[in-house]
Amino acid sequence: MSADDNIIEFRQRDPDDAVSAVRRKPRECMHRQVWCDDSLAHLTCKACGVAVNPTWWLARFATDWDRYRRQVEDKKKQLAVVAAKLDDAKRELRSVEAKLKRRKAKL
Ligand SMILES: [Zn+2]
Hints:
Blueprint: H1 15-21, E1 34-37, E2 42-45, E3 51-52, H2 54-106
Antiparallel strand pairs: 1-2, 2-3
The structure holds zinc ion (ZN).
Zinc ion is lined by residues 24, 26, 29, 31, 45, 47-48, 50.
C-alpha cells in the first residue's frame, strides 16, 4: 500500500447534482458518498441529501477502509493458496504428459 492510497478526493459541490442525486431515505442510508462544501465545511450525503457530520464520516470511512484493507489481504492470501495449487496441478500435468509421450515412443 502506498501513501497515495490514503488520499481522499473531495470534489467541489454542484448544487444541481446534489438535489437530483437524492434517492434514499436518510434512516436507511449509510452515507457512503458525500459532497463536500468547502465554504461551509460540511458534508452532504449524495444518496439521501442529509447533512453529515464530517468527523463522524471520516471516522467511519477510516473504519470501513481498515475493514476493506483486511478483506483484500485475506483475498490475497486465498489467491496465493489457489495459485500454489494451480502450480502443483500444472507440474502434475507436465509429468503425466511426459509419461504419456515416453509410452507412445515405446509403441
Ligand atoms: Zn445518506
